[in-house]
């Protein structure tokens, strides 16, 4: 069902986004990836092969998004996985940094929403949009108020957009601990300690998380839903 489809993946040069691109190409699609790092885009496109192209885009900058989507052509599926590490200063208390919180919201909430705004003129009538939230939305931890708020906002954004943009389908994926590049410097024993209480006591592979995004692309009767991919961490 993805053969011949054109898929745009923001954040597709690494991590889960790259795994989505690999899986989509394996299913017969062509992909266009976008991120802020030109070198990473070039390297990712080379690894993905002839079915991939890419361009630099800053999802917090409207002009950058407008230019990126102007060059995409018709889009069958849009995937948003972009999002940097959250900045310091987000713990609620005397040192709470409102500017840092606004940066976090810009990259992880306003960014996806603006991406949808500029993608809309290019989306096919039966297109899908898949956003990326986070497990803090369901399982807050000490000091995670902003992470919890942002992740929850993205899930509810997907539900609202599913109603507003129908028949375009909009869903969200909420990953748990996934072994992407950002975890490469974390020792294996530390990773094991973090995941030992899960029913599946390990970190997930990016390719495993990617399957949820491909499901949402293919599932023509599914919209406004959230897929949690966490090895059972949510109820551990």
* Quantity of strands, as a count: 7
**Shape summary:** globular
Beta-strand percentage?
Answer: 15-25%
CATH class: Alpha Beta
Low-confidence stretches: none
Describe the structure.
It is a single chain. This protein has 236 residues and is an alpha/beta fold. It has one domain (6-235): NAD(P)-binding Rossmann-like Domain (Rossmann fold, 3-Layer(aba) Sandwich). Helix content is 40%, strand content 18%. It is built from 7 helices and 7 strands. It has a 7-stranded parallel β-sheet, with helices on both faces. The mean pLDDT is 93.
Search tags:
236 residues; Rossmann fold; 7 helices; 40% helix; globular
Summarize the structure.
The protein has 236 residues and is α/β, with parallel strands linked by helices.
Layout of strands and helices, then pairs:
Blueprint: E1 6-10, H1 15-26, E2 30-35, H2 38-48, E3 52-56, H3 62-70, E4 75-80, H4 98-119, E5 123-132, H5 145-164, E6 169-175, H6 188-195, H7 206-218, E7 226-229
Parallel strand pairs: 1-2, 1-4, 2-3, 4-5, 5-6, 6-7
Helix pairs in contact: 1-7, 3-4, 4-5
């Amino acid at each position: 069902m993805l053969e011949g489809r054109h898929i745009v993946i923001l954040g597709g040069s690494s991590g889960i986004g790259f795994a989505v691109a690999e899986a989509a190409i394996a299913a017969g699609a062509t992909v266009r990836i976008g991120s802020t790092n030109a070198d990473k885009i070039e390297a990712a496109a080379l690894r993905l092969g002839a079915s991939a192209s890419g361009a630099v885009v800053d999802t917090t900058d409207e002009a950058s998004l407008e230019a990126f989507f102007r060059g995409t052509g018709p889009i069958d599926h849009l995937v948003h996985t972009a999002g940097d590490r959250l900045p310091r200063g987000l713990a609620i208390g005397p040192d709470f940094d409102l500017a840092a919180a606004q940066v976090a919201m810009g990259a992880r909430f306003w960014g996806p929403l603006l991406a949808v705004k500029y993608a809309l003129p290019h989306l096919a009538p039966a297109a899908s949009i898949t956003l990326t939230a986070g497990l803090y939305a369901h399982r807050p931890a000490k000091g995670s108020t902003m992470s919890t708020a942002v992740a929850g906002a993205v899930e509810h954004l997907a539900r609202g957009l599913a109603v507003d943009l129908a028949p375009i389908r909009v869903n969200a994926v909420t990953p748990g601990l996934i072994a992407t590049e950002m975890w490469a410097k974390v020792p294996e024993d530390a990773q094991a300690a973090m995941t030992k209480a899960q029913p599946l006591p390990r970190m997930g592979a990016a390719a495993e998380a990617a399957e949820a995004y491909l499901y949402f692309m293919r599932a023509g009767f599914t919209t406004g839903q959230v897929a949690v991919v966490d090895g059972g961490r949510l109820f551990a």
